[in-house]
Amino acid sequence: FTVLYEFNEKVLALEKQGKKIVKLNVGQPDWRPPKEVINEAFLQLRNGRDRYASAWGENSLREKIAELHQCDAENVVLFPGSKQAIYSILATQANSGDEVAFFTPHWTAYEKICEQLKLSVKKVPLTQEQKFQPTAEILSSHLTKKTKIIILNSPNNPTSIAFSEKQEKQIQQIARENNSLLITDDAYRDLSFDGRKPRALEEGIAITHTFSKTFGMAGWRIGYSVTSPELARRLVSLNQITFSNVPVFLQLAAEKALERRTSFVEKIRKTSKTRALLAETLLSNLDVVPPNAGFCVFPRLKNNSDATNFCFKLLE
After folding, report:
1. Which pTM value belongs to this model?
2. Which residues 6+ apart lie within 8 Å of 238 measured at CB?
3. In sequence order, which residues have a C-beta less than 8 Å from that of residue 278 and are 6 or more positions away?
4. pLDDT at 300
5. Which of 10, 82, 124, 258 could be a cystine partner for 210, CB 3.0 to 4.6 Å?
6. pLDDT under 50 in the chain at which residues?
7. How far apart are the first and last CA of the chain?
8. What share of the chain is helix, strand, coil (3-state, %, to 5)?
């Protein structure tokens, strides 16, 4: 995990030297937020919407998010990015020694969060030979009575593979049977090439989402959770003693983004699909499972090449 940051620091250092770098190292889209969103942030900042506010988030934004996920505003809590939402859910729902299971390849933050919270990690391996597709059998075989939480990241970072609706329902059923909370990390869901709808809130799941990928608002740091009212209240209590609240002017700009959601999502989905087809052609000499979502490709290097050395050589 530290290699990611070491690599990023080298990128920044090269940029300071005047080098032009095409960044392939972080999950940051190159599209900008809609102009109305940027203008709204300026407007609300000028209007003085930069004061302390509710740790829940602005009610008008929460109501719009609730409508997307077919629930009520009392289920929605705002965070500075979905990473903080995932951290907070793990911190409030699991105790030291509890197991957290997730499929691998995985977003490395899951593992580091668990390490900091002294939670045990159970990695459920997905293989390139099976196109990184999960099965009920492989998940069930890795769970124990200590598995308190399962994280479902679909579409997946870094493979950009979206699991089918049937597979996701099977995973949800297994979590329910194991009495495990299912956290869905839906950061890339809007970039599924088959046009997935926002996930509806159901019993036994906690949805996390972000404005970073869909709307190109990565540096704005705004995300949310959609959970049971009981869990939502616990998350708010943690917010109150940590970051207090997401800046209000950013929340109101995010609300403006949701007003443009349908047309904007359709546009970026088409863009991402076109780029995926291009990448698949350009990387035909590498072993790549064609992505069906997102904006990543996850090639397997030939001849057991060292991935870290490959990345630094590619950068140079």
Report:
1. 0.94
2. 88, 91, 92
3. none
4. 86
5. 82
6. none
7. 21
8. 45, 15, 40
* Token pair recorded at residue 178: 């194991």
Q: State residue 1's pLDDT score.
A: 59
Exposure string for 140-160, b = 16+ CB within 10 A, e = fewer: eebbeeebbbbbbbbbbbbbb
**How many Cα atoms occupy the beta-carbon half-sphere of 185 within 13 Å?**
27
Question: Among 226, 180, 224, 225, which residue's Cα sits nearest to residue 204?
Answer: 180
CB-based burial label for 282 (10 Å; 0-12, 13-18, 19+): exposed
Residue 295: other Cβ atoms inside 10 A: 23
What pLDDT does 5 receive?
Answer: 79
The answer to whether the peptide bond before residue 155 is cis (omega within 30 degrees of 0) is: yes
Phi and psi (nearest 5°) for 175?
-60, -40
- The pair phi, psi for residue 101, each rounded to 5°, is -105, 140
Burial degree of 102 (CB within 10 A; 0-12, 13-18, 19+):
buried
DSSP reduced 3-state for 134 = coil
